[in-house]
Amino acid sequence: MEKKRYFHPLGIKNYEVKDSFWSPKMEMVRTKMIPYQWKALNDQVTDAAPSHCIQNFKIAAGMEEGKFEGCVFQDSDVAKWLEAVAYTLAWKKDEKLEALADSVIEIIRKAQQPDGYLDTYYIINGLDKRWTNLADNHELYCAGHMIEAGVAYYQETGKTVLLEVVKKLADCVDRTFGREEGKLHGYPGHEVIEMALVRLYHVTGEERYLRLAEYFISQRGQEPLYFREEKEKYHNPFYWERSLFQYQYYQAGKPVREQKHAEGHAVRAAYLYSGMTDVARETGDESLMEAVKTLWEDVTKRQMYITGAIGSSEYGEAFTFPYDLPNDEVYGETCAAIGLVFWAGRMLETELDGNYGDVMERTLYNGCISGMSTDGTRFFYANPLEVNPEACRKDQRKKHIDVERQKWFSCACCPPNLARLTASLGNYVCGIREDTLAFHLYIGGVAAVPEKEMSVAVESGLPWKGEATLTMQGNPGQMTVALRIPGWCRNWTVLVNGETAEGVLEKGYLYLERNWKAGDKISLNLEMQAERNYANPSVKADIGKVAITRGPLVYCLEEVDNGAGLTRMFLPEKSSFTLAESGLEEGAVTLLTDGCQLATEGWEHSLYRFEKPDTFEKKQLTFLPYYLWNNRGVGEMTVWVNEIQQAP
Questions:
Q1: CA-based end-to-end distance of the chain
Q2: Active site residues
């Protein structure tokens, strides 16, 4: 099939982030999160769940004696950590950190088997059992993350040791799986290798890696169902036998082109859909791309929280059905939000559509970074939109909700995932296709286009101020600059050198074609005000409620500012908002407004009455950016607030 032209990211090295909001977070990842996570991977964090990750690799490498411990997929944590390290080294030279990463890579190299196989669980427990439980034992998942780490480390440092390791690993997988007779006709239980193989194809030019990714995508869910046959052959337990989703837990109950609704484990789904997008783009497979777009509509229009969180059910960490979006029982795993960012970024490579950029931006600023504390050493696995600490302690249905961020997890997929995403932010800001440079996000920095001997300096006030300025440098010449106009912005202006810009607005992007010269300046002014958001009436959890956003940020009420009983708070329809400094982060804005709270006085001895409760107390409400909640202690929190016509 003929390949279509597509936008590719400028890349971390060609987009140097210099941003008042994101640069401190990226530096925090480098100086605090990565060292902290290294200690966690070595079981050196006091009172934290042990990882055993590095120990497993040392045992597999013959450097120590012992047994495998931890989750079966524990290898993936060090792979994601290495990927995060690679990205930080791309924008900040650190010889000590690089030497540490190189030493870890050497341990991994020693653990690899002669045929390229690499998975500490089976290396330690017996290679005769490998590839016997693809559904649940994550061999291909771990391989995928290691391949991504190897590609990233090569791209950002130029070093090839880990790249050679993962090429051998990918070749081992390629010899084992495929349509050919004598190969296993299986595919991963937890997707990610599909994305990884496409990245490896980009770096090496070896089409067999792309073909293998396409095989894993197309073979998934075909009859006879591989996971069913595998379970019967090896007598593996089927954990989802009594579930409603059965093999759709793995998105493997039917071929991917027949899947119209997002089902099953949300992280697996987001990774699968990202891989499908990659393969469809690279091969020009229109039927696969049509399936991807159908699934995108289902996820983002019917199964996504306002924060960008996905996966509403703790059971199976899964999607359920359209508009089932409970706020207090939500799972909303951090990794699932990260997967949605991966997917949105890949959709933008395929087609410039503001819908993809809006989802990516909303999820980055809310559903993702809510998963870490401001100092980068505490983490959320689930990301609720409503919390009552007592309910989380006493209601089994909410037991999975942590009321404060944790030091680490026995299943620690989210912390290193956050590190690698934040460190790689430059990959998501803009893309280029021939003579069109498209800006998806307005994050301060310098976008370099080496092939055109030009760059664009970006200054941005987001997310606190709706202002961005792009200044041409070098010798840009004839080209098009495409600017995403955010969906949250009602009114906007774009000036070129102080004059109203003439351009074409299409699918949320403003296209400005010019013969650009050094010093030309694009000024973007985005009206940013507190907005009331209402959910589709089919979302029963949010009927009669309102959520407040300002620019890309979702806001919430927190007990530390507003007192207890947040579910009894009401926001009058005509209440206006004023801005105030939060004091939690430099420049962070809170929103103040007049509200009221339904009183409980007089109800101490009554559970039910004939009379309607109608006694309200006036309250000044303080709305905090959602990503900042739980940085000042444990307490209630809610995103969705009752709305009332007017204050009593």
A1: 66
A2: 317, 413
Helix (H) or strand (E) holding 523: strand 521-526
CA distance 372 to 631: 10
Q: Where are the alpha helices (DSSP H) in 469-542?
A: none
Closest CA to 103 of 12, 148, 186, 42: 42
Distances (CA, A) of 19 to 25, 442, 555: 10, 9, 22
Beta bridge partners of 532: 548
Contact 306, 359 (CB under 8 A): no
Q: In the prediction, which pLDDT does 583 show?
A: 87
Q: Which amino acid, 466?
A: G
Q: What are phi and psi of 521, to 5 degrees?
A: -125, 130
Both tokens assigned to 244: 């409603």
Q: At residue 243, does pLDDT exceed 60?
A: yes
DSSP-derived letter for residue 248 is G
- Across the chain, what does the average pLDDT equal? 96
Instruction: For 476-518, give the DSSP string.
Output: -EEEEEEEE--TT-SSEEEEETTEEPP-EEETTEEEEEEEE-T
Q: How confident is the model at residue 1 (pLDDT cuts 50, 70, 90)?
A: very low
Cα separation of 165 and 115, whole Å?
Answer: 11
pLDDT class of 5 with cuts at 50, 70, 90:
confident
pLDDT value of position 244: 95
